[in-house]
Design brief:
7-stranded mixed β-sheet, 13 helices
């Protein structure tokens, strides 16, 4: 009995210690963007997020469960809020879970259709975490929204998540009449890595004349490239809440199964050959970004000589599935109208290839 009490006491002390460490390491050190209306709330939310990540890492080290699985379990405990004006239906396209959002108000004409891919670095996030935004989209735009619950790491390696999104989107496009969607008004939308998948899917569907044409894409702080971590916003926002550069790198390296030990080499730009930087400079070069977006401290970095071993391990990042921003011009020029939301630090890099944008 005494041993049990001592064990519980030690566990409590350890838990308090973890909490204090998270608060000390993140609450006062996070860089809050000036435009944020409730900075204290954001700091608290950031600490809760970091606490989940920390406990997840501890459980992963102990062999109890993976960090992503623990974080997903915790954030999915939050109860969903129902919107009385939106009908939400849980479906499965094969083994892929999806949520369908439809306005309750009857419409005598086909509605706009939106396919939504949630963010989270392919590690966290779920249909539940993005339920509110999907309800809002459906209600405010009088649209039918399909949210795709793609499979994630670490159980399902890349490109399983992208394949799930392609399969679910294809099924939806073939069922538009069933859901009362106008085939000439289908939009793909996503935040963070979901935005990246949205534009990858647009690129893939360019060669599919048997499917309805995607009318537009909405990219919300989309992850569009995975090759340069020294662009201005990565430097300027490396310590922002919820999406620090370290966390972005962690997600990227986990998705592509790249050893974290290569981080220093990658940050120096030594993982790619000089000819790559020369070829893609017109799209990824910081000189494409208006000076007003570089007012905060920014130090241009010169890439170091190529590390061949790092290049072999990271070359998958050059695939357009991972970096759709560097797809060839003939591909990007065919993409539909694009609305880009770039207020978030991740990939708030406005050196975007020419495309029809509104």
């Amino acid at each position: 009995m005494v041993a049990l009490l001592l064990l519980l006491q030690a566990a409590c002390v350890f838990s308090v210690g973890v909490g204090l460490w998270v608060i000390g390491s993140h609450f006062f050190t996070a860089d809050i963007p000036a435009a944020v209306g409730h900075p204290v709330k954001l700091r608290v939310l950031h600490c809760v997020f970091q606490l989940l990540l920390t406990w997840g890492m501890i459980f992963e080290k102990l062999g109890i469960c993976s960090m992503p699985r623990f974080v997903r379990f915790m954030h999915d405990l939050v109860p969903l809020k129902e919107d009385p004006d939106v009908v939400v239906t849980d479906l499965c396209y094969g083994t892929i879970p999806v949520k369908l959002y439809q306005p309750k108000v009857f419409s005598c004409t086909p509605r706009l259709g939106i396919v939504f891919y949630h963010g989270g670095g392919m590690l966290i996030g779920s249909l539940r975490t993005h339920n509110a935004i999907c309800c809002h989209l459906s209600k405010k735009s009088d649209s039918v929204v399909l949210a795709v619950g793609y499979r994630k790491l670490p159980q399902h390696k890349f490109p399983v998540a992208l394949r799930d999104c392609v399969v679910a989107t294809t099924h939806f496009l073939k069922s538009l009449n069933k859901y009362g969607v106008d085939p000439d008004r289908v939009v793909v939308c996503g935040d963070s890595v979901g935005g990246g998948m949205a534009t990858v899917i647009c690129q893939r569907y360019l060669g599919c004349p048997d499917l309805p044409k995607i009318r537009a894409q909405i990219l919300i702080y989309a992850s569009l490239q995975a090759v340069d971590f020294q662009l201005p916003s990565y430097q300027q926002n490396k310590n922002v809440p919820l999406a620090s550069r370290d966390f972005a790198f962690y997600c990227w390296s986990t998705v592509l199964d790249i050893k974290p030990s290569w981080k220093s080499t990658i940050m120096k730009g030594a993982h790619l050959p000089a000819e790559f930087w020369k070829k893609y400079r017109k799209w990824l070069g910081a000189e494409n970004i208006p000076e007003r977006f570089k007012k905060r401290p920014y130090q241009p970095k010169t890439s170091e000589p190529l590390n061949e071993s790092a290049y072999l391990e990271t070359s998958l990042a050059l695939d357009s599935m991972n970096s759709p921003l560097i797809a060839e011009d003939e591909v990007v020029s065919q993409l539909p109208e694009t609305f880009i939301v770039s207020w978030h630090p991740i990939n708030n890099h406005l050196g975007v290839k020419p495309t029809r944008s509104e």
